[in-house]
Amino acid sequence: MLESSISKDGALRTIIALKAVGGVLFLLIGLGVFAMVNKDIADLAEGAADSLGVDPENHHLLRLLEWLTGISPKQIVITGFAAILYSALLLTMAWGLHLGRVWADWLTIGATGLFIPLELYEVVWSLRLTYSIALAINIFVVWYLIRRRIRPSCS
């Protein structure tokens, strides 16, 4: 059994858990999206809205249904495939971090860092708390992993 030379503190365990949970969620989303191929998505959304008690004349619901009507089976397959690929990336990061692999730190820094400009844009233009939280988490993950990789080489 290989033992990591780098201890897993609380922050690293949290990052591993976030990536693993995200990977599982995106896998489930991808599989769920594939289950909708060749189904009437607008009909499914209308049924879901009805079971949730959403007013059928709701402006946002009507816009959503109109948008869903234009989605092709090919677009659904591409979306499902993209979700599963992203799931594989997240699960690879989590596993590599768990094993203490240097490549996993750099993969996580790069992949997580790619979202920071988009999240920054969303925070500035939409002022939503969820984007602010995602931005803060991703900045912390990138900062923590860079600090972790640089600190041992400076000693």
Task: Summarize, please.
This protein is mostly helical and 155 residues long.
Write the layout of secondary structure elements.
Elements: H1 10-34, H2 41-51, H3 59-69, H4 73-99, H5 102-126, H6 129-154
Helix pairs in contact: 1-4, 2-3, 4-5, 5-6
| Weakly predicted, low-confidence segments | 1-5
The class by helix and strand makeup works out as mainly alpha
Helical percentage? over 70%
Task: List the domain count as a whole number.
Answer: 2
Major sheet: size, sense and barrel closure? Answer: none
Order of helices and strands: HHHHHH
What Rg do the Cα atoms give?
Answer: 20 Å
Task: Provide a count of the helices.
Answer: 6
**Number of DSSP strand runs:** 0
Which characteristics define this entry?
mainly alpha
Structure explained in plain terms:
The chain has 155 residues and is an all-alpha fold. It has two domains: 91 residues; 55 residues. The chain has six helices and no strands. Helix 1 packs antiparallel against helix 4, helix 2 runs antiparallel to helix 3 and helix 4 packs across helix 5. It is elongated, with a radius of gyration of 20 Å.
